[in-house]
């Protein structure tokens, strides 16, 4: 069911203002990350001032359009874009999972978003919840923006859209900050992972009428119910319970940093305690310091960006340190 099917049932188009807002606002959901990597201010500041409000207003407008009777074109687009974006994001993540077996920590940046959003010094269950929520919110928002523009269009337009999204990470300072510059293997995997995102989004948006009808056959409030399930899964998986650390400190446990993410200012230092029975050289820290068994050592970092700190060549050894030029007070 394509464009003709939507036109045949004579869906009300919706106001131009609402249409423009449902294209522009979802694209602003990712603004905290892009602003931070561009050096325009703290991730948390942009999240509070622009990112979170954009998500909330998008949700409010989408809810209003989905409640209209008869439902208009925008309501169909929001529904198709929501489910296309969500399921496409799941496909995007599942595509990357097999590469974890080769030691490629492709999902790790998601945890950094939560650390930055909450101004945390170290990762925990709560920062994990914030990071994964940001990740899924972006996938859904990108899907809604596309659906409002391209409802009923051929599915491969979403594939083009997915490639545009990945290209944005390559040409912006994101690639430099997260160490992707010169890593053609990681960039290729990222482009390939966007294929399932684009295909799923494209099929659900091309057949937007069918998508809308089928999800409403399951429940009267399909978007709300799905968000509830997603929230429940994330809460059970990440268990964001206190206590939460307030300083940049971690332990080496079986060669890994626990917590896995730390955040310091340029030239700042972190406390690392080695609980293992052998020493480790911390590659990625200033001077590659040696941390002996049972020792607590202060380790410093000068260069801005996201640093992979290794204790060995083993997959998943060590952890990560964000050297943030915009630390919280």
Outline the secondary-structure elements:
Elements lengths: L2 H6 L7 H12 L3 H7 L5 H25 L5 H24 L11 H10 L7 H26 L5 H16 L2 H4 L6 H23 L1 H11 L3 H17 L10 E5 L2 E9 L4 E6 L5 E2 L8 E2 L4 E5 L4 E5 L8 E6 L6
Parallel strand pairs: 1-3, 2-8
Antiparallel strand pairs: 1-2, 3-6, 4-5, 7-8
Walkthrough of the structure:
- This protein has 329 residues and is an alpha/beta fold.
- The chain has 2 domains: 3-238, no CATH class; 249-323, Sandwich (Immunoglobulin-like).
- The protein is built from 12 helices and 8 strands.
- Helical fraction equals 55-70%
The largest sheet is: 6 strands, mixed
Distance between the termini: 54 Å
Number of domains: 2
Mean pLDDT: 93
Rg over alpha carbons: 22 Å
Count of DSSP-assigned helices: 12
Strand order of the largest sheet: 6-3-1-2-8-7
**Structural class by secondary-structure content:** alpha/beta
Low-confidence stretches: 1-9
- Helix and strand element order: HHHHHHHHHHHHEEEEEEEE
Global geometry:
elongated
Counting DSSP E segments of at least 2 residues, the number of strands comes to 8
